[in-house]
Amino acid sequence: MPNIAVTTWSLEQTAPTDLLPAEPPEGDVRVHRAEVPSPEFSRYLYASVGGDIRWTDRLSWTYARWREHLERPGVETWVAYDRGTPAGYVELEPQDDGVVEIVYFGLIPAFRGRRIGGHLLSYGAARAWDLADRWPGLTDTKRVWLHTCSKDGEHAMDNYQRRGFKLFDTKVEEEAEVPTPGPWPGAYPA
């Protein structure tokens, strides 16, 4: 397959007051932390949310690799549910010196465009800011950051900026174009 140019934008918040929460969506949408590390559930979320936008870096992870990652102190998965059905997730990962990365964030395609994403991102960023409250021994959060790229959904950058994230870096790199994996082969049209 040919190479494509992919732009990656890195954004940050440097104080909890930077967060500009979205209005909660209408209906029965709730966000809960997946407190039991579950490689099966985390892989389901990863493949279902990222399958149509070519998230592939974790598809080859073994069960043991997933478990090792999920059991690291401070790694958290927050899941949005719409009437009891998983709609999307945000994954937090602490780094050195009070930095927390929103490593993954997104919605399953059927739940996009319903105002769930802004609410979930707001909730996830707030949980990044208070991560040390739940994990004794972690440094208080001083910075929350994330990255998005030109392969992500068309509203991703706008959502991040509307939640108070500020751009601090832009990179353009060539990547091999890969087929859309879907949550299972053939789930989405090419």
From TrEMBL:
The keyword Transferase applies. Pfam families: Acetyltransf_1. Residues 29-190 form the N-acetyltransferase domain. Keywords: Transferase. The keyword Transferase applies. Transmembrane segments: none annotated. GO terms for molecular function: acyltransferase activity, transferring groups other than amino-acyl groups. InterPro entries: Acyl_CoA_acyltransferase, GNAT_dom. Signal peptide: none annotated. It comes from the Bacteria. This is Acetyltransferase. It comes from Streptomyces griseorubiginosus. The lineage of its organism: Bacteria, Bacillati, Actinomycetota, Actinomycetes, Kitasatosporales.
